[in-house]
Amino acid sequence: xxxxxxxxxxxxxxxxxxxxxxxxxxxxxxxxxxxxxxxxxxxxxxxxxxxxxxxxxxxxxxxxxxxxxxxxxxxxxxxxxxxxxxxxxxxxxxxxxxxxxxxxxxxxxxxxxxxxxxxxxxxxxxxxxxxxxxxxxxxxxxxxxxxxxxxxxxxxxxxxxxxxxxxxxxxxxxxxxxxxxxxxxxxxxxxxxxxxxxxxxxxxxxxxxxxxxxxxxxxxxxxxxxxxxxxxxxxxxxxxxxxxxxxxxxxxxxxxxxxxxxxxxxxxxxxxxxxxxxxxxxxxxxxxxxxxxxxxxxxxxxxxxxxxxxxxxxxxxxxxxxxxxxxxxxxxxxxxxxxxxxxxxxxxxxxxxxxxxxxxxxxxxxxxxxxxxxxxxxxxxxxxxxxxxxxxxxxxxxxxxxxxxxxxxxxxxxxxxxxxxxxxxxxxxxxxx
Length: 433
What we know:
The longest helix is centred in the C-terminal third of the chain and has 18 residues, at 340-357. The chain folds into 2 domains: 9-214, Cytochrome Bc1 Complex, Chain A, domain 1 (2-Layer Sandwich); 236-430, Cytochrome Bc1 Complex, Chain A, domain 1. The strands form 2 sheets. A 6-stranded mixed beta sheet has the order 1-2-6-3-5-4, sandwiched between helices. It contains 16 helices and 11 strands. It is α+β, with helices and mostly antiparallel strands. Helix 10 runs antiparallel to helix 11 (319-335).
């Protein structure tokens, strides 16, 4: 069952060399977005190459054959839209630019020049910039600011999913031009690339311009990331100290990958816990007990694995109070069905969020581009149909599957004393979720 008529037209094409092109015709929008998705990121790296995907992302901004400087390249983008933006993730890298739809031809040409004719110059200047960016991730003592950079190596030890995206200081200092070219030639090939053009555009024009910009690339093979084969039989913990006035706490449970059949039910379960101030965690932890200003629950999923994270920042004196309080809430969710009222609310808000996405070039492009590149592409209306079929019993089953002591990883970042750490270890060994 489809719950509404899609307000867009979608086309999927492949050039003769294997280069993928998606077109989303959304005529009611007044702009367009060009986005290039690449199947590369820290998951495709080794200890020796960790950080090269991110370093390479930076280097494209240094210029191309027809725009041989950072100033000329960025000026060209800014003359037709909002400029070029990029981000490197664990499983993919994305470059995008919002443009005036009348300059679609010029925009696709620019993308073609940047990503098929890079010059990779001024490496030492860009190295300094990346080293400065790396410093933002640590305090003066070298302790990470981001609790994810502590939890991921604990959960995926030795696996690229546990690597930081930016890489290590040692690697950033040693990368040479040849290293960047090797990575570029391996991953920036047609089977690993996808161009997604969204907004007030037409398929014929997009294909015509994409062929001119990327049709000359040589056909190659698709790259595959290492498969995660890791299990956990008991709760794990890691406590990292710093001189902050508060403590960051993360409870991270092993969960599902994007293609798992229970993924939609997991998505709805996440909404039960964290879908506004009236949701369960916010009400119990913040509004009723006053233990924190804010608390979040989020899914961090990949093609074949994933995590369910609960993050909160709390005063040092309340750390040993808030963790059992959170575990109690999770225990209630896995031991009883949610109410009919709550069930209706989360489904309504899920549908509404997808409807809101139709007004966003970035969100529409992300949905189609990432899904087609990495997972299994489904239309938003198909996804909503699947969500609407989920039952309360399926949400309960997912909570019982995920919220087990053996799936739990507890990470803290802040000024805990030895007694608090021991108390938390005892809690993990005795607490039954």
